[in-house]
Specification:
Citrate Synthase, domain 1; Citrate_synthase_sf; three-stranded antiparallel β-sheet; Cytochrome p450-Terp, domain 2; transferase; mainly alpha; 3% strand; Citrate synthase; 2 domains
Amino acid sequence: MLSSAIMTEIAKGLAGVKFTESKLTFINGEEGILLHLGIPIQEWAENSTFEELSLALLEGKLPTASELAAFDAHLKENRAIPQQLQQVIQDMPRGINPMQALRTAVSYLGLLDAQSEDITPEAQRAITIRMIAQFSTIIAAISRTQEGQDMVAPRLDLTHAGNFLYMLTGQEPTAEQSRLFDIALVLHVDHGMNASTFTAIATSSTLSDLYSCITSAIGALKGPLHGGANEAVMDMLDEVGTPDKAEAYIGKKLDNKEKIMGVGHRVYKNFDPRSRVLRDYAELVANKEGKSTYYQILETIEKTVVDRLGDRGIYPNVDFYSGTVYSDLGIKKEFFTPIFALARISGWCASVIEYSRDNSLLRPSSVYTGEKDAEYVKLQDRK
């Protein structure tokens, strides 16, 4: 139990504040460890799929083959989005922020769901399956309509990752491309009590509906301090231009104490284990596709940063390499944050459902620093 005594010290950004228990994700930032259900993220990335990890987090255990097959079938059955929502996406203004579009689409999806106001465990699980399935369809539809292209209907013979790439580009991806994107999704499914997950839980604690929780989470993820770092990394790479300029570019930024995008993490004081996985795949893709320029720049930046700041616990995070992987898969950088949401929807829903089992309304306190003996001055007497 947390003490009910008024705290006199402020925990900036709620750092170190523990408000609940969870069996889903464990992070040891000092040692660079990330576990889901006790299993290292590296093992999930190597052996599992987005579908399996999503189900495992929802159920709190590794699924059997039959359980996973049934879950996968339910996802596929729910990939199509309602015609009314398709029209809403089609009518959205061109040039808008994709996260605004996603937030609006998910909120509208709730209006069309007759079960949306039901917050029983059974309803939440059913809604979760629909949202996991339809997030990919919504995001692909937003991307295509914003480019003036027709939406591509989902296919039932492709994996979750492969189907998204197909709906996004209109071309069936290779098995290798599907697997690479699947791994990227696995790495982003859940990450403890980050800002968007906490926001979803805070909304849920009021006994609001699941669509409201996820819409809240999308709003939190939209912020550049949370979901937009991988896009900023790509902007930085374009600014650097060529590998031979990278060391001087970063050195100057470090000398001026400027932030290096994709470097450092609120939790990790060691290498982000997700970045180690993505670095290997980014190198593989770069070498195979002949797109080594971005990777070479990142490699130089990483070495420069680690040499200068490694002893202070500042290392590349998952955003550092994810952008290059997405770029090589043909995903536009303004859609990197929606891709984050595409993966994190499973973690958001699993966390909300877990917290709902022993719900408590979140109501933190603040330290009042204003006056206590002020007098009310009538409007006509104020200067």
